[in-house]
Structures are given as C-alpha cells and as structure tokens.
Amino acid sequence: MADQQADGSVDRPGHIRSFVLRQGRVSAAQQRYREAMMGRIGVPYVAARVDLDALFGRSAPQILEIGFGMGETSATIAAHHPEQDYLGIEVHTPGVGSLCKLVAEMGLANQRIIQHDAVEVLREMIAPATLAGIHIFFPDPWPKKRHHKRRLLQPALVRLLASRLRPGGYLHSATDWQDYAEQMLLVLSSEALLENTAPGFAPRPDYRPQTKFEQRGLRLGHGVWDLVFRRRPEAVQPASFKAENDRQNQLA
C-alpha cells in the first residue's frame, strides 16, 4: 500500500524520491510572499496531465526546473528569456517563498511554481514529449558513498526525464562535485533517448548565470561541471522504449 508523506507526496513500491525534506526556517518575508503569490503563480499538484499552454496563457517553449533552491538563478533566467516559460519544482518552503518574492519584485509573467515531489509531477502532470528543456542545477551531491543511492540523477529518473522532453529538447545539469559529475555523465550517456551535445562535459551555456557561491568556488580553484544532453529525433527512438513509457503512464 502507498504511504502518504508529510509533504503530500506518496511513497509507492519502486518510487524514486527526488528529495529529502529538510525544512529550514521560513522568514516573515518569504511566508508573506508565498501566501500572496502562490494563488497567482502556484500550480497545485494533481494526478492528471496539465495543459501547459493554458497554465501560462500562451504557446511558448516550456522549461522545467527541478530543485530551484532559493530561486535566484531561476528568476534571472526567466527575466532574460521572456520568450520562454519556466515551471519550477521545489519542496522547501523557504525557497518557494524566496522565488515568489523575486517574481513579484521583478514582475515576471513567465514563471510558475509547483511545491511537490518532482517525480510525481513528472509522472502524473507532464505529458510525454512536451518540454523544450529541463534544468537540474547543483542537486544535493550526497557526498558519502553509502548515500550515493540517494542522488537524484539515477537511470530510472533519467529515463523518465528523457520521455518528457520533445525531440530536440535538452536536459542541462550542473554540479560542483567531480565524482557526481562523472556519475551524471555515465548515467546520461547510457540513456538511449539522449545524446550528448559535447564530447564530455559542456562549457557553461550563457543562459546559466554563475551564482556568488559558484564564483567564490571558482576563485578558490573548485571545479564546476555542466552537462547538456538532447533528446534524439523520434526516428531513432527504440521500439522498446515506447512500450515501457506506455507501461509507466498506465502505472501513474
């Protein structure tokens, strides 16, 4: 039987958890902006496909971000690319409140937020072959070896992510942990629906701004690794994948 979690998500047999809930302190401003803005830009979780064009009130390329943290990068990208729409997923209330504040202050019309488990959102709400891109920036590295199984980018999730990209859509991940970067490269390279856009790690695309934390790390000699993969054209989609994707959708 599925178990209801404190965050509202459901644990099912074989369910991939996209996060571990560590609820930090929510400031008065974060709480105030969350209460004021989520009625306008928040998207309630439902176990049904969502019409993304209706959600944003237009037809435009749609980018999904998993784990946007405090939202600075998300807001900056959305502000610089008004021609695209951005759907951010985050479970932690301080980060949700922070991005709500940035959206209000910057007057962004192309940002929406779902506060829920990303895996359930992908399985239930996002139709296959719809997204123009997916961003996963600096996910929890789980540095201890015994915790590596908790890392977000595992084969099952990468397969699900790839299925939600339209042909030519991209999956961009970044990390400042070299061993996690190497694991990401291996897992992403092993997914038949994806192809690497670089010989290995990619140069940082111009649209991803450097955070202050990242700039400080680079000054200290720390590395940052970007990976940008694209979904292959439908013509080379393995026949076995369609059957597996249909099976996943039936289980969703």
From TrEMBL:
EC numbers for this chain: 2.1.1.33
Function according to Swiss-Prot or TrEMBL: Catalyzes the formation of N(7)-methylguanine at position 46 (m7G46) in tRNA.
Catalysis: reaction(s): guanosine(46) in tRNA + S-adenosyl-L-methionine = N(7)-methylguanosine(46) in tRNA + S-adenosyl-L-homocysteine
Protein name, UniProt field: tRNA (guanine-N(7)-)-methyltransferase
Keywords associated with the record: Methyltransferase, S-adenosyl-L-methionine, Transferase, tRNA processing
Pathway terms, separated by semicolons: tRNA modification; N(7)-methylguanine-tRNA biosynthesis
Positions annotated to bind substrate: 144, 176, 211-214
Organism expressing this protein natively: Candidatus Accumulibacter phosphatis
A GO molecular-function annotation: tRNA (guanine(46)-N7)-methyltransferase activity
InterPro entries linked: SAM-dependent_MTases_sf, tRNA_(Gua-N-7)_MeTrfase_Trmb, tRNA_methyltr_TrmB_bact
UniProt keyword S-adenosyl-L-methionine present: yes
Residues binding S-adenosyl-L-methionine, per UniProt: 65, 90, 117, 140
Gene3D superfamilies, alphabetized: Vaccinia Virus protein VP39 (3.40.50.150)
Family statement drawn from the similarity comment of this UniProt entry: Belongs to the class I-like SAM-binding methyltransferase superfamily. TrmB family.
Top-level EC class: transferase
